[in-house]
Amino acid sequence: xxxxxxxxxxxxxxxxxxxxxxxxxxxxxxxxxxxxxxxxxxxxxxxxxxxxxxxxxxxxxxxxxxxxxxxxxxxxxxxxxxxxxxxxxxxxxxxxxxxxxxxxxxxxxxxxxxxxxxxxxxxxxxxxxxxxxxxxxxxxxxxxxxxxxxxxxxxxxxxxxxxxxxxxxxxxxxxxxxxxxxxxxxxxxxxxxxxxxxxxxxxxxx
Length: 206
Fold this sequence. Notes:
The chain is α+β, with helices and mostly antiparallel strands. The protein has helices at residues 4-23, 89-99, 116-121, 177-187, and strands at residues 37-39, 45-52, 56-62, 65-69, 74-80, 84-85, 107-113, 127-138, 141-155, 158-163, 167-170, 195-205. It contains four helices and twelve strands; from the N terminus they run H-E-E-E-E-E-E-H-E-H-E-E-E-E-H-E. It has an eight-stranded antiparallel barrel. Helix 2 packs antiparallel against helix 4. The longest helix is centred in the N-terminal third of the chain and has 20 residues, at 4-23. The termini are far apart.
């Protein structure tokens, strides 16, 4: 009996350890959940360049931007068309009243679906390039666009999205051609190019 007890107790111990291990739930991998991000309008920029008389380029921008990226990756940016800034007051007024008709169309909207985990996966100071597929809605008309974007984790609670190349917007796609012709007549210009390159730098916080 003395020689068998160690084997007996060893068998009991092994059985106990095995049953204990089997009774524990298997470890699950961590789940990454999306986080809602809000556009910092003060730290964001949306600009475009117009060309008149075939050779004179002028920089313009919109000063009123708002938006967010929801936890599931639905991005929405609202552009206050009344905030258009060309550097000339009378030109701003004509852009609002003649081209955009802000009384009927106060804003333009950009929407896109992104991968929210991509925001969380970046370390501070790290960047990643991606192609953003989105939709621009202006004066009740929607048109798709592609934008090459660099996303940078600027801080623990800040992400910066910057266009790598301008997004080309055609006036005819949003029925803006008539408005451009009126602007051309009012300014006494021989031409206003109906295609503009748009660039952006968008800062998001949480």
